Amino acid sequence: MPKDPDIKRQMDRVKEIIDRLDADDVSLEDGRELYDEGQNLLSEIRERLQDGDGEVIEIE
């Protein structure tokens, strides 16, 4: 099963963003930037998974 370190890295970053937003110590502007970054990362992850042609990849 092939590994995809890019998806793993992107998922790790999404988790970091969620943790920062949950901490309640982020300004509104920084929170908005983090939210936008997270949405972009999730879109990229979804696109990569949909373009996988049914191939199973290992992400961890």
Outline the fold blueprint:
Layout: H1 5-22, H2 28-50
Helix pairs in contact: 1-2
Describe the structure in your own words:
- The chain has 60 residues and is mainly alpha-helical.
- The protein has one domain.
- Helices cover 68% and strands 0% of the residues.
- It is built from two helices and no strands.
- It has helices spanning 5-22, 28-50.
In short:
With 60 residues, this protein is mainly α. The chain has one domain.
Order of helices and strands: HH
Question: DSSP helix count?
Answer: 2
Total strands: 0
Beta-sheet strand percentage? under 5%
| Chain-averaged pLDDT | 85
What number of domains?
A: 1
- Spans of at least 5 consecutive residues whose pLDDT stays below 50 are none
| Structural class label | mainly alpha
Largest sheet: none
Global shape: elongated
Name the helicity range.
Answer: 55-70%
Ends apart, CA distance between termini:
11 Å
Radius of gyration: 14 Å
